[in-house]
């Protein structure tokens, strides 16, 4: 289980790195204001960026140390991502591809399920 938790921590690290890269590109293109003006999905996207940029670094460090706080932070991160894509299925743009939305949701669901199983809770409760 500990190797699996390290893999989840690496996924959380990738999440923050890619989010920083994406936000920087988006801001450089002047898209932040249009994102806010785009409605609920735009606001949920901004909230997701904030969740990712705050929860991921903590989750990476603490989950790498097998701490319960890291497990919970990672569950918040991946749980929000999953919720975002589930909500996105219902408020998506007409041109959005459902298969890609479902695939992205699955990418968040898998680590969330791993973190929720009793073995992960047990591994993090030991504080080794």
Q: What do these coordinates show?
A:
- The chain is mainly α.
- The protein has one domain (about 1-125).
- About 85% of the residues lie in helices and about 0% in strands.
- It has 6 helices and no strands.
- It has helices spanning about 1-30, 30-35, 40-65, 70-90, 100-115, 120-125.
- Helix 1 (about 1-30) packs antiparallel against helix 3, helix 3 runs antiparallel to helix 4 and helix 4 (about 70-90) packs antiparallel against helix 6 (about 120-125).
- The chain is globular, with a radius of gyration of 16 Å.
- The mean pLDDT is about 90.
Which descriptors would you attach to this protein?
about 130 residues, mainly alpha, 6 helices
Outline of the structure:
The protein is built from six helices and no strands. The chain has 128 residues and is mostly helical.
> Segments where pLDDT lies below 50 for 5+ residues?
none
Domain count: 1
Distance between the termini: 13 Å
Q: Helical stretch count?
A: 6
What is the assembly state of the chains in this entry? Answer: single chain
* Residue fraction in strands: under 5%
Question: What does the main sheet amount to?
Answer: none
Structural class: mainly alpha
Which term fits the overall shape? globular
Q: Tell me the radius of gyration.
A: 16 Å
Structure summary, number of beta strands: 0
Helix and strand sequence: HHHHHH
Q: Which whole number gives the mean pLDDT?
A: 90
Give the % helix. Answer: over 70%
């Amino acid at each position: 289980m500990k190797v699996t938790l390290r893999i989840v921590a690496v996924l959380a690290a990738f999440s923050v790195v890619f989010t920083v890269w994406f936000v920087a590109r988006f801001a450089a293109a002047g898209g932040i204001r249009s994102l806010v003006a785009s409605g609920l999905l735009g606001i949920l996207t901004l909230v997701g960026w904030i969740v990712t940029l705050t929860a991921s670094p903590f989750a990476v460090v603490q989950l790498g140390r097998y701490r319960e706080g890291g497990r919970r932070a990672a569950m918040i991160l991946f749980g929000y991502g999953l919720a975002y894509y589930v909500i996105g299925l219902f408020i998506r743009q007409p041109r959005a591809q459902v298969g890609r939305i479902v695939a992205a949701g699955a990418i968040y669901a898998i680590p969330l399920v791993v973190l929720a199983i009793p073995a992960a809770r047990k591994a993090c409760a030991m504080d080794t």
